[in-house]
Amino acid sequence: MLEGKAVVGETDMLQNMQQDALDLAAKALDFFDVTEATEIARFIKKEFDRTHGPGWQCIVGTDFGSFVTHCYGCFIYFRVGGLAILLFRGSAGPEAEANQFAALETVKV
Fold first, then answer.
1. Which of 30, 52, 78, 88 is exposed most, by the fewest CB atoms within 10 A?
2. How many CB atoms are closer than 10 A to CB 85?
């Protein structure tokens, strides 16, 4: 489990949604080895799509950079040991209002 092991780097999520992300990461790490980054990402993404609506993206690994546009209130980046997890809901397209999205500077792990 992640109890006390996850370190949140950046987030704009409400506390309960953050806790959902940390709980799902703990569950994923119970099911998969840390070397199975793609399976961990798939698990977290599908569960967030199911519980918080579609459009979530998840990146898991030990070395990646990112620059993403995300819906306001739908971004978290955290580490579990040497594993970094980036979870966000991407923009819905040009028909969405611009003020619903925020660009976050590059996260380098």
1. 30
2. 27
pLDDT in tens, 43-60: 999 999 999 999 999 999
- Does the pLDDT at position 100 exceed 60? no
For residue 61, the one-letter residue type is G
Beta strands 56-61 and 6-11: pairing type? unpaired
Q: Give every CB contact of residue 11 below 8 A, 6+ residues apart in sequence.
A: 18, 75, 76, 77, 78
- Tokens coding 14: 């409400």
Q: How confident is the model at residue 4 (pLDDT cuts 50, 70, 90)?
A: low
Burial class (CB in 10 A: 0-12, 13-18, 19+), 2: middle
Centroid of chain to Cα 75: 6
Q: Is 63 helix (H, G, I), strand (E, B) or coil?
A: coil
| Residues 31 and 43 sit within 8 Å (Cβ to Cβ) | yes
